[in-house]
Fold these 2 entries.
Entry 1:
Amino acid sequence: MNALLQLHHQVGTYLILAAFLLATGIFGLIRRRTLIGMLIAGELIFAAAALNCMALNRFAAPNPAVGQIFVLFILGLAAAEVAIALSIILAVYRNYRSIHSTELSELKG
Amino acid sequence: MNVLAVAPAFPFADYLIAGIFLFFVAATVAGALIAACAKRIIRGVSGLALCSIGIAGLYYYLNSPFLALMQILIYVGAVCVVIVFGVMLSEPDEPLSAREQRKPYPVFGLLLAAVVTAAIFAGVSRVGLDTAWPKAAAADAAWKVEALGESLLSTYSLAFELISLVLLVAILGALAIARGGRDKE
């Protein structure tokens, strides 16, 4: 019971959670058949990286501002990535009438 | 600014703090599972929103209320809404094509993905647990949002400017691709 009470003071909890987020993101990236589903899985991977940075920043870094600014940078990059990826998805949909990854195979030999 | 260290003399304050932490952990895990495995894509987006709220709570426990706010603002408020617009403008939920229905071993791919994923999870969490991270608890004053803002505008001003430039270029590129696009002859 005491260990459960101290769970949020341990770096291992956050690192395992980040590993779990990374794993689910990669699972979704493999299993999803549409581009939007893969984009959502990619967002999970971004979140995993940010959580990892933040956990090590809290427990192992001497200057806490660095990690927070880095995570802010990751959040901004994720937002930019979503904007670009969705516009590409819309362009693909307009041309192919589908965003299924199996049907976008024009370059396949 | 250790927001959690100054818990007042409230009865069962420790249990309350641990319970809320477990709630956020559960929200993160459940949201991630929904986002990766839900059949309909709109449920996946909702799962991503739930997961983001959980992660925002974890940021609060990691001493950074500012990032918790930013996480909710950017992920739930912007990213998820934009993805919902993408879902509306394209049709991600279509019946399986005939070629996919003829796949000989549908379970095999799922198993392979699960094994790869479990291996990644086990490896990464083992590295995280086995490494002896140096203990360097920063002074509480360094966690203040004022300190963050000051270093954002002095030491790390280049990163601050670069991220706005990246966002500007991303918005322009998104507009250029999504409006005109390239015609398929």
Entry 2:
Amino acid sequence: MNGRTKKPRPRLSLTRRMVQVYTAVLYNAHVRGWVMGRIYRGPLKTVCVPGLNCYSCPAAVGACPLGALQNAVAASASRPGFYVIGTLILFGLLFGRVICGWACPMGLIQELLYKIPGKKVKKGRVTRGLSWVKYAVLLIFVLLIPGYYALRRVPLPAFCKYICPAGTLEGALGLMLHPNNGDLRALAGGLTLWKLGVMIVILAACVFIFRAFCRFLCPLGALYGLLARLALLGVKLDGDRCVDCGACVRVCPMDVKAVGDRECVHCGKCVEACGYGAISVRAGKIVLAGSAAKGTEKGRRA
Amino acid sequence: MRIRTAVWLAALLLLLGVGAAVNIPGSFLGDGSAASGGKAGSAPGEFLPDFKVKCLDGSVFTLSEQRGKTVVINLWATWCLPCVAELPHFDRLLAEHGDTTAVLALHSDLVTEDVEAWLAGRDYHLPFAVAEDRVLTDMLGGGDVLPRTVVISPEGEVLCNAAGSVTYEDLLRITGNGS
């Protein structure tokens, strides 16, 4: 008999996909917003969701952490943004870039786009180098430009205004396409065209490059990445079991140099690839997934 | 397996709970916005319902008390760059044509910083008020898209209600103060 059997989908990646879809729906539970073409402004909107999800999406129930950070910087001349900064540090210390891999709607969108058939760009030195660009985006568009204009008492959330594809896709298109919002459509001009162009380029790139926005441009991922080594939850390597075979880094779709570093989004592919049981998803010392018992005596370090 | 099932069940209940709460206007998580958007009376040719709002300087702006003057209401916010850029035009309009024109600068109910503190040090002489909730801004045509300028004739008829920036010349033309 000559037949192909489809490899069963590993449980961890299925769980991750389910969590991604769940969080995307949870962050955007305001269905009424789609019906009415207006955003939700109830009490929950003062709470930041952990992932990138535009405040101006009609369905969004929470605030975008990046938008909130830029607005806090923009208002910093009159008051410090302790609440927003504290929230982001808390998210980073608890979850790190697990948020990117498991609880970010923009991350989910990018992964779904990558499933579209087409030539795929392999990672390498160039993509590793490009992964630094998001730190520049964080510094310039999220901190320096809003901060500079804050001193002049002018609000300018530069990343939201000039770059964010989530804002264009969820907020701008989400609102502008609704029949009730003719006055918003009438305001569309050069900046709208620029943002649409940026969004189209980024989404197109995601078809060929895995998580192109996440890897090269997302300042939120950059921010959480700074706290990567401190985060409580995530994919962790057991050094005693590791034999330095490099399988984890090879199979990783991101530009990591080591498991759990600033580029790791904790997707768990390395957990499934490690033949020595050296990698697991942990919350502190508690193993949530990945078998520590998978390794053999041969695989243990002397 | 049981823990996993319990976690997913709790997650589902959370989703259903949040979903129900945010979508029902009167619920504890609802945002109070009317199904129709509450805009009736705000379109050109219509007549706005009367309203009164307390201004930051302690005075009260009542729409019906402005009869006989052209009324210009500007919906703005400190976090809205085009709004901030055009405030001087409204200030100038009131300074130069205050005998025939009443102006109100109404800040969105979405407040991200102390509006009074923001205004301190800026030399404006407009009546500034902050909307307490979405009801008033919805009644004026919607506070989600800013800036918004509403112009009402001395007889109370809405002459213009549009979102977007205005120049001083636009204001003169719309209010009939232009030469």
